[in-house]
Amino acid sequence: MRRHALDLIVLFVLASVVCGYVALAAPGVRSEALHAYVLALGALAMVALVSATSESLPRSERGEFERALGEGSGPERRLPELERTEREVTLGISSAYDLHHRLLPHLRECAQARLERRGLALAPEHLGRWWPLLRPDRPPPEEHFAHGIRVEELRALVDDLERI
Predict the structure, then answer these.
(1) CA 83 – CA 69 distance, rounded (Å)
(2) Rounded-to-integer distance, Cα 61 and Cα 67, Å
(3) Residue 61's pLDDT is what?
(4) Distance CA 102, CA 95 (A)
(5) Closest Cα partner for 149 from 103, 93, 98?
(6) Alpha carbon of 63 to those of 59, 60, 70: distances in Å?
(7) In Å, how far from its chain's centre is CA 102?
């Protein structure tokens, strides 16, 4: 009740001022203004009553069900590495600069790791058609904003790397 006392007083004064103004300014609607004023006072009394009773009730602890609902973990976060890799793939598809500086180093590292696992080195005879793209001394693109790798080519490259 204490929290709402000032609000209730302000609303009571406002309702009284409005009712008094309407009763004096328009004598023909005086009875309707009085009915609205009584209705507003009843609503304020109900708010005061509900506020007083709810504050006087003891606060109950949450039940097991509510606690179990609150303990649920939020939405699963994706791995930051996965999000970063997805960004690099998107950028590598869109521009030659990002393909050369962001995506190819990862693909080259994957190819080298897969070849080393089989006891092979990163060489043209082991990478076949992908050697011009994955060779370590590949020059950077002259046009930075040129189109990167096509999605189909990237899928084929990844498939071939998985087969190594």
Answers:
(1) 29
(2) 10
(3) 72
(4) 10
(5) 93
(6) 12, 9, 11
(7) 26
Determine the distance from the C-alpha atom of residue 93 to the mean position of all C-alpha atoms in its chain, rounded to a whole number. Answer: 26
Summarize the confidence of residues 68-75 as an average pLDDT.
70
CB contact at 8 A, 16 and 37: yes
Q: How many residues does the chain have?
A: 164
User: Does residue 73 register a pLDDT over 70?
Assistant: no
Distance (Å, rounded) from C-alpha 48 to C-alpha 1?
Answer: 6
Picking from 13, 34, 10, the residue whose alpha carbon sits closest to that of residue 22 is: 34
Taking the alpha carbons of 40, 44, 49, 55 in that order, is the dihedral positive or negative? positive
Q: Which two tokens stand for residue 127?
A: 């990478």
Q: What SS3 class is residue 58?
A: coil
The residue whose two tokens read 């990862």 is: 106
pTM of the model: 0.52
51: Cβ–Cβ under 8 A, 6 or more apart, which residues? 1, 3, 4
Q: How far apart are CA 111 and CA 113, in angstroms?
A: 6
